[in-house]
Amino acid sequence: MRSLRGNDQSVVRALNRNAILNMLLRNGPLSRVQLKDHSGLSGAAITAVVAELIEDGLVEEQAIGASTGGRPPMMLSVNYSARTAVGFKLMERGLDAVLTNLSGEVHAHIHRDLPETSPETVVRTASSMTTELLRQCGVPSDRLAGVGMGLSGVIDVVAGVCTHSSYLQWRNVPIAALLEQAIGVPVVIDNDVNAFAAAERLFGHGRHALHLAVVSVGRGIGSGLVANGRVYRGASGGAGELGHTVTERRGRLCDCGKLGCLEAYASEPALVSRAQELAADLNILTIQMLLDHAADARIAALLTDAGERVGTALANLVNLFNPELIVIGGEGVRLGELYFGSLRRALRENAFDGLANDLPVLLEPWGDDAWARGAASLAISRTFDMEVN
Ligand SMILES: [Zn+2]
C-alpha cells in the first residue's frame, strides 16, 4: 500500500473527526473503546482525533459510573456550550434572531421590523442584531461559531447565493458573503424549510430517522426533504416546492404566477381569500376570524377541502419518496382538526398500498423562535462538519 501524502492524511483526519463527532452527537456519551468498536477506526486514530476535539473544546471527558475495581472508563461527550450560534429568519417585514448553544437550545430571541428588504438593510440590521444578542447573553465574540439565515426562496447553498426569492424580490444576491463581511464569522444560508428540516434531523424527531419530510404550513406551504440522513436540495436548490405542486388543473392563480398550485388553495392567505368568496357575509379578514367561524358549515367545508388537498399532495410525496416520518410545523398548526384530520385521511386513502399505514405524521407546535432556531442549526451543523448538509 502506498503511503499517504500530507494532503490525503488531512482529508482522512477530517473524515475521522466528522465520523467521531457524529457518533458522539447521536449516541454519546461513549468511551474510546466504544468509539473504536462502532467506527472501525484504529485505536491510534481515535486517540489522535479525540485529543484534537478536546483541545478545541468541542468534546469533554468525565468518569461515569463506579467500576468494580480498576479505573472507571472515561466517557466522552459533546460539549454543547463550547460555542454559540446565531440564527436568522428573514421575512418580508422583519428579522427574527436567536442565539443558541451547539445543541440548538435558545438563550435569547429578538425581533426587528424591516422598513424594506434590500440586501444592504438586511445585512446592516442582522449585523447589529448579532452584536445585541452577544451582549445580552454576555458571550465574547470569539465564541460565536457561525451564523445561519433561513429565507423563503431558491438558494444555492454552496455558493451562498439567493438565486430567486419572490417574497423578497431578490435575484442572485450573494447574501452569505455580504453577511460574512459584516459579521466576521462563517455564514450559511438556506431555504427556510430546509433549515428547519436540518434542525429536525439534528435535534428533533428526525434524530434517528434517515428519511423524513418536514412540511411547513402557514403563509406558504413548503417541504424540506432529508434523504439518507442529508437534506436533499436537488440540482439547483429547488427540491421540495410542495406548495407549487398542482392540485387543480388551470385552477386559482398562485403568487408564483402559475395556476392551480396547492398554496393557492390551502395556505393561510388562500384560506382567507377563499372564505371571503364563499361567505362574504362573514367578512373574514384574518385566519383567527376564520377559525372563530369554524362552526359555519361553509367554513368547515373549506378547512376540510384544504386539508384534503394537502393530504393528497403528501400521498404523492410519500409515493415518490417513501419517508419513514413526516413532521408538520409552521404557523398553520393552529388550523385544527378539520384541516389536519382530513389531511391524515386523504394521505392514508391516496398513498400507494402500505406506504402510509404505519407512517407517523407529527404536528410540531412551533414557538415564535422555531424558524430562527432552524437557521442557527445550519451554522451548528457546519461547525461540527455534520452529515446533514
Ligand atoms: Zn405556485
TrEMBL record:
**Upper classification of the organism:** Bacteria, Thermotogati, Deinococcota, Deinococci, Deinococcales
SUPFAM superfamilies in UniProt: Actin-like ATPase domain, Winged helix' DNA-binding domain
Q: Does the keyword Manganese apply?
A: no
UniProt lists the family membership as follows: Belongs to the ROK (NagC/XylR) family.
Q: Which domain of life is it from?
A: Bacteria
What InterPro entries does its record include? ATPase_NBD (IPR043129), ROK (IPR000600), ROK_cs (IPR049874), WH-like_DNA-bd_sf (IPR036388), WH_DNA-bd_sf (IPR036390)
Task: Keywords in alphabetical order, please.
Answer: Kinase, Transferase
One of this protein's Pfam families, by short name? ROK
Name of protein:
Sugar kinase
MF-aspect GO terms: kinase activity
